[in-house]
Amino acid sequence: MVRELGYADIESAKTTWKRAFEKHNQTLKSLRALGHSDFSKEEYWEFTRGDCASHLEADETVRDCLERMKFPKFVLTNCAEKEAKQALKRLNVLDMFQHVYGADFMGNACKPSKEAFEKVLRDVKRRMSSGRARDETDDEEIQPFETDRVFMFEDSLKNLVSAKENFNITGVLVKGKTLAEENGEEVAKRFIQINKPCVSELMEKAPSLFA
Q1: Nearest one of 16, 43, 42, 11 to 31, comparing CA atoms
Q2: Which of 124, 150, 159, 208 lies at 20 to 30 Å from 101 by C-alpha?
Q3: 93 and 146: one domain?
Q4: Residue 49 covered by a domain
Q5: Residue 138 confidence (pLDDT)
């Protein structure tokens, strides 16, 4: 925002960004709402994400954990799909997921809105049912799931709360910087909490993931 959009300094940029982000939940949408439109979304994602190889490394503990979860897995991110896939590839886990849903797929919606979750869940349903004829249920509202039927790993409480309240999705909170920023320790107690996806910790806290 300082380098490309003319903000005086980092603090003023952060203050302006924070107010907009609390409303829009995605920085690109926030910048658009603030009137910044002289750049394409592709330019934005490339500039802000940069080269993921400079700050991401593979963690075989996480890959092992994903491999042991014998069920379909999907990625839902407010980032653009291209950059998300680059990061997942760098982390050596891209092949663990059936599909990546991001900002391009969700369009004007993004987490934690019910609309974003419903749009993604509807497409997951379509992919899981591929090969059968389309029927009238494809246009029905997505109903809440049975407990332990769908798990969602997240570092943001806002996203977990929305997924739980709208679709009864079981939340797994990956503790980190975002939790501290959201100052939601009490809300966090509603969810399974882990430091990172690893078999030993999840076997203790959510053994059904490996059933």
Answers
A1: 16
A2: 208
A3: yes
A4: no
A5: 58
Domain range spanning residue 28? 2-39
Dihedral of CA atoms 181, 182, 185, 186 in degrees, nearest 10, equals: 160
DSSP annotation of 157: H
Query: Do 62 and 27 reside in the same domain of the chain?
Result: no
Contact 88, 75 (CB under 8 A): yes
Report the chain's C-alpha Rg in angstroms: 18
pTM for the model: 0.90
Q: Same structural domain for residues 17 and 75?
A: no
pLDDT at 141: 82
In angstroms, rounded to a whole number, what is the distance separating the alpha carbons of residues 197 and 182?
Answer: 21
Q: What pLDDT is stored for residue 198 in this prediction?
A: 94
**Residue 46 resides in a domain:** no
Q: Judge whether 195 lies within some domain.
A: yes
Give per-residue pLDDT as tens, 135-167.
Answer: 444 567 899 999 889 999 999 999 999 999 999
Tell me, yes or no, whether 176 and 74 share the same domain. Answer: yes
* Alpha helices, H only, the chain: 2-5, 10-24, 27-33, 41-49, 60-68, 81-90, 103-106, 114-128, 157-167, 177-182, 185-188, 199-205
